[in-house]
Amino acid sequence: MNDREFNIGVVLAVILTGMLAYSNSFSNDFVWDDASSVLLHHHVQDPSQFFQLFREDLHAFGRGQGNFYRPLLAASFMLDYALSRPAPGSQPSPLLFHLTNTLWHLAAALLLAALLRRFRVPKPVLFIVPVLYVVHPLHTQAVTYISGRGDPMAATFMFAALWFSLWEGSAGRRFAGTVLGLLCFVAAVLSKESAVIYPFLLLILLLTAPSSNTVEPHVEETSSRFWGRLIPLVVGFVAVAVYGVLRATVLRFANESTSTSAGLVSRVTDALKALTVYVRLIIAPTDLHMERTLDGVPTLAVFGGIVILLILVAGIVLGIRFGNRRIAAGSAWFLVTWFPISGIIPLNAQIAEHWMYVPLAGLIWAVVETLWMILAKRGVLIQRVAGVTAFVVVLLCLYGTASRNLVWRDNETLFRDTLAKNPNSIRVHFNLAVTYEDILKNIPGARRHYEKVLSLYKEKKAAEGISEDTFWPDELEAHISLGRIYAEQGNLDRAANHFQTVLRVQPNEQNRSYLAEASLGLGKCLLSIGDTDNAKKLFEQAAKLNPQLGVQQGAMSESAGQPDTSSLKENPSTQGVGETTQ
Description:
mainly alpha, elongated, Serine Threonine Protein Phosphatase 5, Tetratricopeptide repeat, single chain
């Protein structure tokens, strides 16, 4: 093949393998945060609200106020929703949403290939890296999951920004590259906040990129040309500074909460453990799931993390020392993009598979580049055996991705699979309970998982020395749901006990709605046994706490029976669905 034919072959291989890997995800349903991102998001469903998306949190209609500013991600959901054209009062088909996720993923892989071509990597490297990247099962959390789209979207724009910023040639071409790179970078951070790593990644590529002088590549760059290459870098850092100021002021929607207040030594230890887990998942992408933690990860994993860091640093040093800056670039790429999600800087979780979306590209590049440097000096037979091995690895990854897609087909399947691997996840037990109660009408299953939520919170309070009178929002909701379930089954004593537990909480702006529901539920229990006076007081208390309940005075009398509670329940497809680690 000539270069043009080979490049076309790479593009076709990436598209073919990517579509094969994710085609069986197109029939999957909306799951988890897809409810707050799409199904409940009234602004996403209304094209006239396009500019409102740039003034609010991504989960503006979710449970609680978040601080996820991703307006372009929301805009992409708006476009999919509009093109799906759902009938009034019905949900859109998830097909287009899943297809769009896959297209963003393919775009990221193709732009990665374009970056590698700019570095003039050997053809085997240019072929295998983007193909392996596009089919790796670790990406399923970012691609199969509709709400995971922020990762491939941000990566696509960031890879495009890197490609434009590496343009060389005339002053006009460099200026155009700088402007286009800036625009793509802005689009990246408006898709997901983690794209702020862009200027640091650009610095690595600028320091390791070969000269574009293909006629005389041995000619040293002049000082003016070197400094000219740094202009996109300066522009990138200025853009990050401006973005940081805006997010800290006018675009700050809530205070960030972190999962740990541990000291620096503990955070570094956990970061090394997480690094070992990440690399293990990259090499053997099995046992994937949403609620991954470091519980049970042995202390020995810390030494594994240290060894991995030493290998990556060695890759940078030796790559530069022996004239293969591409190995250095790939190793540094992984380290720089891993550091912000390592946990050394406190985050809202210890580890998450989709955080590897951008770092994985650098690690695959460094490994494949190193292997080819070794194989290039071997015989044709060994190279062919290596080629067959690479083909088998791609097939195994393709199978792993296609298999993992099936786990995401609906909420029940996803939550059950997650609990099989992390049985003590409170929010997954809660979400599965809500799925059983509101969607599948499996009341015994709902009751079982609500009870498990309360049991796990009890253990958490005992282990951490937290007062029993401290309640988390989903703990309160679990009590209310159990009260409602027991009341409907005629077990009024147990129902009343759950409602009374909620009413022990001191009222504030955050829990008023829970107290209103508990007051209403307990009032109905009392009304059922003929205690009209106390029931009326509770109904009045519920109406005072939450006037939107619409409890009418006439409905509070014994003769009127139980009050209308239709406004109590949220949309059944979204009740209890909380934001995942993003």
